[in-house]
Amino acid sequence: MPATSVIGLQWGDEAKGKVVDLLTEQHDIVVRYQGGANAGHTVVMGGQVYKLSLVPSGIFRSGVQCVVAGGTVLNPAALLEEIDGLTLRGVPVSENLMLSDRAHVIFPWHFEEDRLMNDQGADGESIGTTLRGIGPCYRDKVGRSWAIRLGDLYREGFRGRVRKIAEAKRRSLASLGTGGAPLELDADTIFEQYSAYAERLRPHVADTTAYLLDAVEAGKRILFEGAQGALLDIDHGTFPFVTSSNSSGVGIAAGAGVPGRVITKVVGILKAYCTRVGGGPLPTEQDNATGQHIRDRGNEYGTVTRRPRRCGWFDAVAARYTARLSDVDVLAVMLLDVLSELPELRICTGYDLNGRRTADFPSHVDDVRRVAPVYETLPGWRQEISHVRSFEALPPAAKNYLGRISQLVGRPVELVSVGPDREQTIFVKP
Ligand code: GDP
Ligand code: IMO
Ligand code: MG
Predict the structure, then answer these.
(1) Which residue of 68, 115, 130, 225 sits with most ligand 2 atoms within 8 Å of its CB, as the best mutation to test the pocket?
(2) Is 106 in the pocket of ligand 2 (CB under 6 A)?
(3) What is the pLDDT of residues 8-64, one digit of tens each?
(4) Do residues 327 and 250 make contact, with C-beta atoms less than 8 angstroms apart?
(5) Is the separation of the CB atoms in 67 and 208 below 8 Å?
(6) Phi/psi at 64 (5° precision)
(7) Is the entire prediction scored with pTM above 0.90?
(8) pLDDT by residue (tens digit) across 358-380?
């Protein structure tokens, strides 16, 4: 049975949410397997806009099981707020949402650590995290001693564990310098609060690894929803300006607990240009009128933090790297309509680095910062395309632009998006 994964191939916000919502129709289960509420996935249908952080984007289709697997980090308060928000808007969230008892839980000290350590990227440049406690929670997971998993909230030792960790965190936070009043971290208050969250979440908590392994054997169709983008991958992205999980395709097996071999199709999601929010290099960045034009047309402001996203030309070097890394079969090119008013477009086809031309994405962030992009210029189309519903009906220059992206990345384009709504989608016939 087919299992599909949807992976962002740039620096996040490639419109994965839209694609997952569309593909959910052909699947039984949708799985978030890494990241947490640092993600902001948008689904638009019939003029209604939904922003999802941890709940999988499959939640809108009835009969579909949504799973938040063990590789995620979960802030119970934020998740409950998200569930309540959906329920209020008439989206049913009950047994159709399953949460892994292996998922790690974000606590108040994680937010404080995120705030205090955010400024410690390379060369004093801030990583510019989403301040959702993601990195600190993953750090504790790997460190083990100070970690609490969702399943622990229902065990006898929970109160003692919170006391022990809160005490240790008080000391370690004091050594970081508080940058303000020291955080209270009253262990009993935190215990009461998290016990109340745990009670509300109880109906959703399960061994999702067992569930997914059974689902694979039963031939269920599974859709894996990546968060962030491959260039924010902790191991393969522009370290240290990355997130703290494997956000490229390599993270699926570890995060979901399902062998990677079950995946039969990988859909790589690309914006028709590049954006990045937070610190770190963006080789094709246009910190000028073109960048501002793209930001305005594409409403490029963070879904989670509303920070303006940095914008630039399409980077085929970066996209080819991440498409190979994630073993992408087909591409979805999103937000093509945003480029409609530009007289000409540029695509980065190579980098000049230390006097040498290369088509490889450098492994060290200093080199990524140093590259000079080599551009190819293509004609723009200067006409509105948001109403177009077939590849044939696109202006020749738009077809040419898509063709060049496909050629440079080395994968066929299967889907083109010309607006945020479900309907504003072109499925390209092979
Ligand atoms: P995700 O994190 O990858 O799911 O992406 P985000 O939701 O953070 O950002 C994508 C933004 O682009 C959202 O506001 C979408 O509603 C919007 N969007 C998606 N596809 C298109 C498109 O084809 N054209 C335009 N103009 N906007 C789009
Ligand atoms: P979606 O799933 C874009 C960025 C942050 C920061 C870096 C580390 O919506 O595509 P973190 O809070 O994860 O420690 O921040 O990663 N970042 C994202 N950028 N889209 C996202 O998610 C992101 N999640 C994290 O801006 O630069
Ligand atoms: Mg987003």
Answers:
(1) 130
(2) no
(3) 999 999 999 999 999 999 999 999 999 999 999 999 998 999 999 999 999 999 999
(4) no
(5) yes
(6) -100, 135
(7) yes
(8) 999 999 999 999 999 999 999 99
